[in-house]
Design brief:
Blueprint (H helix, E strand, L loop, with lengths): L3 H8 L3 H8 L7 H14 L5 H7 L5 E7 L4 H16 L3 E7 L4 H13 L4 E5 L3 H8 L7 E3 L9 E2 L4 H14 L6 E4 L5 H17 L6 E3 L4 H12 L6 E4 L2 H13 L9 E3 L16 E3 L2 H16 L12 E3 L10
Parallel strand pairs: 1-2, 1-3, 3-4, 4-5, 6-7, 6-8, 8-9
Antiparallel strand pairs: 10-11
Length: 329
């Protein structure tokens, strides 16, 4: 059976536009409507009853899909989104999955569409979950908490790469000539963007970026990698991809008699509530996850109103505390 995405591809428009046409939206331009109608006829596409109900905009419910463990960033983003949705008069139907299993994601989509949600929001850290959802024939607007622009969904994000660049620039301004990176899992989109920002900034500033260690976001992984860093005598600065791993790194360095920041400077990412109470208080890159959640809801309302203007990434903020200092040698 042909899908809405097949029609969109044949007509050269977005799947949201196809949905509007087949459900009689009078705001669609005649030329666009003619293209979609021709593709519908050629492919023999028949929209589902659920899709027609969704396009009526009478529903005041939004589907929210999340995957992975409840790390600080995704859970805070969900909190901000849920609050904004309630204030806008929407109910949120949630599907929280333990993993990005393709069948699980598709089942969640089917369940939410069956509830006649007006839109689906994805707050998931890994690229595979997004890929699965984009291929799941979602017949309503899809808004995602990521930076991957692609026809068929509306990304809303914080500029991860820019935040990583600010961290490296800060360390370079203190006089560090090499910046090691404790990266997050490669499957996480935010981790990839932060690693890219680290590499780009080091290349631009002429810094040594030869030391890359990969953790799993937890303090325990940071502690294990911190032991490796403590055995090196060529590392004076470390950019950690999140604050929890930074905590583990500081712990390991301190155990080994390496002083922070006297011997090694540490920068984290996220600015979790505990970051200012680390010993020493952590220099980090602050992300406003609550604001990100609110912007996701703003985007949902804009798209439902027919505005598909791309949303610019939000800018993170460098917060300088006591875990960074000029190198001693």
């Amino acid at each position: 059976m042909p899908t809405l995405f097949d029609v969109a591809k044949a007509a050269g428009v977005s799947h949201q536009t196809v949905s509007r046409v087949v459900n009689g939206d009078p705001t669609v331009r005649p030329v666009t409507k003619a293209k979609v109608d021709a593709a519908v006829d050629a492919l023999g596409y028949r929209p589902s009853l659920a899709a027609r109900a969704l396009a009526s905009r009478k529903t005041r419910s939004i589907g929210l899909i999340s995957t992975g463990f409840p790390f600080y960033g995704p859970s805070s983003t969900m909190h901000g989104f849920n609050g904004a949705a309630r204030r806008a008069g929407y109910q949120v139907s949630m599907a929280t999955l333990d993993s990005d299993d393709a069948d699980g994601v598709r089942q969640a989509v089917d369940a939410l569409v069956g509830q006649a949600v007006a839109a689906v929001v994805l707050i998931a850290p890994d690229a595979e979950a997004l890929d699965v959802l984009r291929s799941a024939d979602v017949t309503v607007p899809l808004v995602t908490a990521d930076s991957v622009a692609d026809d068929g969904h509306h990304p809303v994000s914080i500029d991860q790469a820019a935040g990583a660049e600010r961290a490296v620039e800060h360390l370079a301004s203190l006089g560090h000539r090499a910046v090691a990176h404790v990266a997050g899992p490669d499957a996480w989109m935010d981790g990839r963007d932060r690693e890219r920002g680290w590499r780009d900034a080091c290349a631009r500033l002429g810094l040594d970026a030869s030391v890359l260690l990969r953790g799993d976001w937890t303090p325990a992984s940071g502690h294990a990698l911190g032991r490796e860093l403590a055995r090196r005598d060529d590392v004076t600065a470390v950019f950690c991809a999140n604050d929890q791993m930074a905590l583990g790194v500081v712990h390991a360095l301190t155990e080994a008699g390496v002083r922070v920041p006297d011997d090694v400077s540490i920068v984290g990412f996220d600015d979790i509530p505990e970051a200012e109470h680390f010993l020493p208080p952590l220099t980090t890159v602050r992300q406003d996850f609550e604001a990100l959640g609110r912007r996701i809801m703003d985007t949902v309302e804009a798209v439902l109103g027919g505005d598909e203007t791309p949303v610019a990434p939000m800018a993170p903020e460098l917060v300088v505390r006591l875990s960074t200092a000029p190198p001693r040698h």
